[in-house]
Write a structure and sequence with these properties.
heterodimer; A: 602 residues; alpha+beta; 8-stranded mixed sheet; 5-stranded antiparallel sheet; 20 helices; B: 198 residues; mainly alpha; two-stranded antiparallel sheet; 2 strands
């Protein structure tokens, strides 16, 4: 048994310790509360109460450059001009050269009146003195103690400096990070633009925002009475600039194509026109030009329909440009050969009741598969296509990209529509052999010819080369793997047949570029009237080809929507030839040293 | 203490014999010693040190403050230069754009988009049209300038200050365009022109 004498001091120690710990715990809780839980509030309060200041450090949005590094979009700074109407209306005291206030004979300061100042401001901003005055008058009419009004938004640095040098105490100039596009509308359809608040709205500006966007930082510090930062009080959270986005577009080529297609669209009186140039060996889009491209410096100047890209978003029934796909299917499965012959009256009633017409009336003749392409005969293609199992035909159409979209992943880009074989009616059974009853986009058509020109290997189309982050890391886009759609031999045979289309077709003389072998196909597609039928007498015309055909380097496609002066695909000859010639000379492509081997047509 | 004691044993007997205790270093004094005066040197060192530290601190602080003013003036100088750079960049923006360059070239009478012609060395064959430029350009970069650029809209061309991208060709350009289509080159009167060299 222990005595009270031995027990009592120990208990006292324990109690004392417990009390000390409890107090300590209370302090710890409070400390955590101050330092962690409510830290932000306290920091803000401290800045508000003290002579602290907080500044946003803007990171610059990344540049967009073309494949050669030429800058297409870059960041700049614009300023708003804000005014304090109450102070402004009072005018300011006149000062002499030494900065001393000028006084009149009564010892009163001489004032520079508001109208005089308004005239000075207007002279810089390009507004009239009356306009500037009315901004202040309107503000004061609403509230005589109004301290805020906007004189002008988004003035340039030069104007901002001129205004700042007037040293008017009632003007402030908040700055805006802004975007400028040195090449204007060149590739405007691809670039897109950003809104005045900096939100990316269209094109790659929007699509690749994760690469381009900058992270803002902050600088907090305490200021002395004279505005100088008190040493040791600055805390900087640096901003991060956005990455540099490199496109596959070639600016100079893109400009030429835009200028060309614009002149031609006007000449043909078409709704719109477009040109696309694709590198056969890489699938990279070197030019994607269309009429009425938006000038991203001034998107407001373009009609709402011109601010996006029709070239990537318009889908249509391709017509004759898809005839080679039917032939490719036949060649690849061994059903057809270039000299497979069919009898071609210009109109034929098929056993299932379907009626197919050729575009033009002609005397009955026998055509080879090559001849069917050269004459672009619907009747022959229907017969040739009917030799192939319909499911196989649909499978090849899908392998060539019908209904599959593209790797571009463009906003509002249609994937293209098609029907399963079970849903084909009697007419569709034949029309699918010559590019009807399914829809594609211009890039999808270009992709088909890239595949044929590239030995049957389909490469994903791309517009973005890479993204270089501010720290130097380079990311290339994740593209699908190449697909061998048809055998290399099939592609070779088909390529020669398409060369014959250019060499022996009606367009031969108009599009020949001396020294170069070229292959390709025209297409005159019917345009849907939006009510289940086709528009009468107007077409969506296309002409697509690759050169040099002995070693294909580039695919060029030109399209016109509803040209009125020349209504068929012959409308595209001049623009195609000029476009292809520019591509060949721009890339210094050597001429072919051989001639096109001519295949029998009849 | 409790418990019965049968026979008191001599507990001390078993203890080892300790050595005799020597004189303790502590002893009683008869009277306190006279108080020693503190060493002056130590005091001087301590106070001097403190003053020195204070002075150094102050000096450093003055220097930092000084440099922060310097920093502030340099920052404002940099800001001024940044403004200048920005204004200059703005003023030349768009001048390198292809449509502006092409319009300038067109104003000088240059043409683009001609069919290429090649001379094959192996057999001296001419591949292509074998004809010179006929003077018509594939596109009309100046007279039908179609690719807008708000940055250079209305900016006079370098090669013809009276024309701009938005205004199209000037009278002088039309005159140049009209003279291009000459089928023969200008006659050479005084031999081939040669540059004067030393």
């Amino acid at each position: 048994m222990t005595t009270r004498a031995t027990r009592s001091p120990r208990r006292r120690t324990v109690v004392a310790l417990a009390v000390v710990l409890a107090v300590l715990a209370a302090f710890v809780v409070r400390l955590v509360d101050i330092q962690v839980v409510n830290a932000n509030d306290h920091v803000t309060d401290s800045q508000a109460f003290a002579t602290g200041a907080k500044q946003t450090l803007y990171g610059a949005r990344g540049d967009i450059v073309d494949t050669n590094g030429s800058v297409l979009a870059t960041s700049t700074v614009l300023y708003d001009v804000q005014i304090d109407p109450m102070l402004a209306a009072q005018g300011i005291k006149k000062r002499d050269a030494d900065g001393a206030v000028v006084e009149d004979e009564h010892g009163e300061p001489v004032m520079t009146t508001w109208p005089e100042l308004a005239a000075q401001i207007g002279a810089v901003t390009g507004q009239s003195a009356a306009d500037v005055q009315s901004i202040v008058d309107d503000a004061l009419a609403l509230d005589p103690e109004k301290r805020y009004a906007v004189v002008k938004q988004f003035v340039s640095t030069e104007e901002f400096r001129e205004l700042a040098e007037l040293e008017l105490p009632f003007l402030t100039f908040p700055k805006h990070p802004a975007r400028t596009y040195p090449d204007g509308a060149v590739a405007g359809n691809v670039l897109g633009f950003v809104g005045s608040d900096g939100t990316p709205l269209e094109g790659v500006e929007d699509q690749q925002d994760s690469c381009l966007a900058a992270t803002n930082g902050t600088l907090t510090y305490q200021r002395g009475a004279d505005g100088v930062i008190i040493p040791g009080t600055e805390v900087e959270k640096p901003s991060t600039d956005g990455g540099t986005l490199k496109l596959t577009i070639d600016t100079d080529l893109q400009w030429f194509m835009q200028q060309l297609i614009s002149e031609e669209t006007q000449r043909l009186n078409a709704t719109w026109g477009g040109v696309m140039v694709v590198d056969v060996k890489t699938g990279k889009i070197r030019a994607a030009a269309e009429t009425d491209s938006v000038d991203p410096n001034d998107p407001g100047a373009s009609a709402a329909t011109d601010r996006g890209s029709k070239l990537f978003q318009f889908s249509f029934e391709p017509g004759s440009t898809f005839k080679p796909v039917t032939i490719a299917t036949g060649l690849d499965t061994g059903v057809l050969a270039p000299d497979t012959r069919v009898y071609d009256p210009d109109r034929m009633v098929f056993p299932n009741g379907a009626v197919i017409n050729d575009d033009e009336n002609h005397a009955p003749e026998t055509l080879t598969a090559t001849g069917a392409l050269v004459r672009s005969s619907n009747v022959s293609l229907s017969q040739l296509g009917a030799m192939i199992d319909p499911q196989t035909r649909l499978d090849y159409l899908k392998k060539f990209g019908v209904g599959q979209g593209t790797a571009l992943d463009w906003s509002a880009e249609p994937k293209g529509q098609y029907h399963e074989v079970a849903d084909w009616d009697n007419q569709t059974y034949y029309t699918t052999t010559f590019g009807q009853a399914f829809t594609v986009t211009v890039p999808q058509v270009a992709s088909v010819y890239q595949t044929i020109a590239n030995g049957g290997e389909k490469l994903p189309l791309s517009l973005v080369e890479s993204c270089t982050a501010a720290d130097g890391t380079v990311t290339t886009p994740d593209l699908p793997d190449p697909v061998q759609v048809i055998k290399p031999e099939t592609a070779q045979t088909l390529s020669t047949m398409l060369e014959n289309v250019f060499a022996q077709g009606t367009l031969a003389a108009d599009i020949a570029i001396p020294g170069y072998r070229m292959g390709g196909k025209t297409g005159t597609a019917q345009v849907t009237d939006g009510a289940g039928g086709y528009k009468d007498g107007v077409y969506f015309t296309s002409l697509i080809g690759f050169a040099p055909a002995d070693d294909p380097q580039y695919v060029v496609i030109t399209v016109f929507d509803e040209p009125l002066n020349t209504r068929m695909s012959s409308a595209n000859r001049i623009s195609f030839k000029k476009a292809m010639m520019q591509v060949l000379t721009h890339y210094r492509i050597m001429p072919s040293n051989t001639a096109t081997p001519l295949l029998p047509v009849n | 203490m409790s418990g019965a004691v049968a026979e008191p044993a001599d507990l001390l007997a078993e203890l080892p014999v300790l050595p005799p205790r020597r004189d303790s270093p502590l002893r009683a004094l008869e009277r306190p010693l006279p108080r020693r005066r503190p060493r002056v040197l130590y005091g001087i060192v301590a106070v001097g040190g403190a003053l020195l530290i204070g002075a150094a601190q102050m000096g450093l602080s003055i220097l930092t403050t000084q440099s922060s003013y310097e920093l502030s003036s340099l920052t404002s100088q940099q800001r001024g230069l940044d403004y200048q750079k920005q204004a200059l960049t703005d003023s030349i923006a768009g001048l390198s754009s292809p449509q502006y360059l092409a319009a300038n070239a067109a104003a000088l009478g240059m043409v683009t988009g001609q069919a290429p012609t090649y001379l094959r060395l192996s057999d001296s064959a001419i591949i292509g049209t074998a004809a010179g430029s006929n003077g018509s350009s594939a596109v009309n970069a100046l007279t039908q300038a179609a690719v807008a650029n708000a940055l250079v809209s209305g900016v006079p061309l370098v090669s013809d200050p009276s024309a701009s991208l938005t205004s199209g060709a000037s009278v002088a350009d039309e005159a140049i365009a009209a003279t291009i289509d000459m089928s023969t080159p200008p006659a050479i009167a005084d031999g081939l022109p040669t540059p004067a060299t030393h």
